[in-house]
Design a protein that fits this description.
- The chain has two domains: 61-73 and 181-390, Orthogonal Bundle (MetI-like fold), CATH 1.10.3720; 96-167, no CATH class.
- The chain is built from 15 helices and five strands.
- The chain has helices spanning 3-6, 34-40, 44-53, 56-71, 75-78, 179-215, 217-232, 235-245, 252-265, 269-282, 286-293, 298-334, 346-351, 356-361, 369-390; strands spanning 99-102, 105-119, 124-136, 138-148, 152-160.
- The strands form two sheets. It has a three-stranded antiparallel β-sheet with strand order 1-2-3, with no helix packed on it. It has a two-stranded antiparallel sheet with strand order 4-5.
- It starts with a helix and ends with a helix.
- The relative contact order is 0.12.
- The mean pLDDT is 85.
Length: 394
């Protein structure tokens, strides 16, 4: 027998434990501060809003967009002139400056009257301020009559010119129509065409992307091939070709919805691929399998269990797609194959500034491009902020 066997075994001391044997006292449990409890119990949308508020540029952009879309509801009230009002005595009049100081004293806002002369050498109208004609502005006044939202007749305006004077803050066009009034009216068409278009595009993306991502197989193959065919065409020439197909006999409303449909049909592919990729990753999750085993139909699984998980990301992506639709409408109308008069949009207004002589002599006709740039930048910053807020890993 070996010595190791005869050697007595030494027992190691037991490890001390730190589990209390005292009865549990709920009052001694760790309590959360109100701030911690508010954070832990917040919903996904609440967390998104808190993160979005930290993005100052996106927040300011959202306020700008809210004001611009809000202005489309009361366009008739905000502008001094009706959309079709013509001032034939002031064709191609330059912008008028608003003054608040006269003879060294602070007075109510006013503009000077305009004197017109004809430059026969250059064949143009020349306007100058008449310092002896002071035309005070009127606020919350009765001016040009209009039909508000085609529901009832009204004449209330936020600001009106003097009955004997004019108020052309951004000048007039070739027919003597106020450019500022037409820009504000045009926002109603240019801004809403992006919202309606993205609503149609978003619906198509959810349907086709959801089917391809959830079922896979031959459905996925068909949808992917269709997306690749659409994306293989150059975007602007395809827009132009489809817009040229619209009958010239269509009413302005039909042309509006036709252009909106064309933009939506060509813009859903990117969102559809985002939906497909998300569903491919989520359809194998345990909660999806449990819903399938419990007898839930695919439509319910997609709508109630899968889509809400990444809907915030899709909304952010859709927001970034709206500027493309606004630019598409503006480009088509600028080229003369989109919206046509009597519809007024920013693209239609820019169409009148194609002549270089007009641009050189009357540069204020290019001012409709300013709101286009502001809206595109605001949507891009706003979409970036939404995307960062919706990203759970940021």
């Amino acid at each position: 027998m070996s010595a190791d066997v005869l050697e007595p075994q030494v027992r190691e001391p037991a490890l001390a434990h730190y589990v209390s044997t005292e009865p549990f006292d709920p009052a001694s449990a760790v309590t959360l501060t109100p701030e911690q409890e508010r954070l832990y119990l917040a919903s996904q949308w609440t967390l998104m809003w808190w993160k979005f508020k930290q993005h100052r540029v996106a927040l300011v952009s959202g306020i700008i967009l809210l004001l611009m879309y809000g202005s489309t509801l009361v366009s008739e009230i905000l502008v001094p002139y009706n959309l079709q009002t013509r001032n034939t005595d002031f064709i191609y009049a330059p912008p008028q400056r608003v003054h608040v100081i006269r003879d060294g004293r602070l007075v109510a806002p006013f503009v000077y009257g305009l004197d017109k002369t004809l430059d026969l050498q250059n064949l143009r109208r020349v306007y100058s301020e008449n310092l002896n004609e002071v035309r005070p502005l009127r606020f919350f006044c009765s001016g040009d009559p209009y039909r508000f939202w085609n529901l009832f007749d009204a004449s209330f305006h936020l600001v009106c010119p003097d009955p004997r004077g004019t108020l052309f803050l951004l000048g007039t066009d070739r027919l003597g129509r106020d450019v500022l009034s037409r820009i504000v009216y045009g926002a109603r068409i240019s801004l809403t065409i992006g919202l309606i278009g993205i609503a149609l595009s978003f619906t198509l993306a959810l349907v086709f992307g959801g089917l391809a991502g959830y079922f896979g197989g031959w459905i996925d193959v068909v949808v992917q091939r269709m997306i690749e065919i659409i994306r293989s065409f150059p975007e602007l020439p395809l827009w132009m070709a489809l817009s040229a197909v619209l009958p010239v006999t269509w009413s302005p409303i039909l042309v509006y919805f036709g252009i909106t449909g064309i933009l939506a049909l060509l813009d859903w592919t990117g969102l559809a691929r985002a939906v497909r990729s998300k569903l491919l990753a989520l359809r194998e999750e345990d909660y999806c399998t449990a819903a399938r085993l419990m007898g839930a139909r695919p439509r319910r699984i997609i709508a109630r269990h899968l889509l809400p998980g990444f809907l915030s990301h899709l909304i952010a992506s859709a927001t970034l797609s709206i500027p493309g639709m606004i630019l598409g409408e503006t480009a088509l109308s600028f080229l003369g194959i989109g919206l046509r008069p009597p519809i007024t949009s920013w693209g239609v207004l820019l169409n009148e500034a194609q002549n270089m002589n007009v641009v050189a002599l009357y540069p204020w006709l290019m001012l409709p491009v300013v709101p286009v740039i502001v809206v595109i930048l605001a949507f891009n910053f706003f979409g970036d902020g939404l995307r960062d807020a919706a990203d759970p890993y940021r």
